[in-house]
Task: structure prediction
Amino acid sequence: MLVSAKDMLNKAKAGKYAVGQFNINNLEWTKAILLTAQELNSPVILGVSEGAGKYMAGYKTVVGMVNGMLEELKITVPVALHLDHGSYDGCLKCIEAGFSSIMFDGSHYPIDENVAKTKELVKLAADHGMSLEAEVGSIGGEEDGVIGKGECADPNECKAIADLGVTMLAAGIGNIHGKYPENWEGLSFETLDAVQQLTGEMPLVLHGGTGIPEDMIKKAISLGVAKINVNTECQLAFAAATRTYVEEGKDLQGKGFDPRKLLAPGFEAIKATVKEKMELFGSVNKA
Ligand SMILES: [Zn+2]
Result:
């Protein structure tokens, strides 16, 4: 059964490790992530962007697929199904569809409007036993057409949002979605530290986990990050493995064109990426 991300993240924050949010795009992605979490006895968060939800035919299809897998793959580790960078309407749809967690990304609104909308959703999420992630300070790069500049959040605005009763908070600390540019200045640990000082026990979320050096990830966890989002890295691993399969002409040998064979190397590559991240984040055997 799907669970809210609240308990797993509070435990992670207290235990100084982080739970990975791995975004899903289809059946292969979902199965690879769930099986790896089960094998490593790790809690996990499945992230679904609004674009990916649409791609998979809608949120109800996603909920049906994930719930079916939890039962039929005998997944017993804690799993949250989470809307990533949701709009207000997207949040309402996911609450209705049976997600167990939502993110409301109101970072592009003036802070007063972000506060007002987040407040309404805090109540709705609580009524449904769901966790809610809020965002302050936009995160750089592009995600589903939303382009952020990668600014650092104002710690006082973070406190204002945290005090509304959200479960976890994503604060911009110079992180970027997608691949990091050569001249990237790195994470702002000063901002992260200031945010944690003001928000206390609240689990903090690091978006754009792809390509952040390992020592920065570990330092971020030590400063209160308890959830790390990984999306692009699984996509790159999947694409590279699929490319190799085709370039080696394996789709032309025997029944190599069978989608179950064609997509198998990409599936294994996602599993390997997820395993590597869970080990780095310290969530192995924390289920
Ligand atoms: Zn993000």
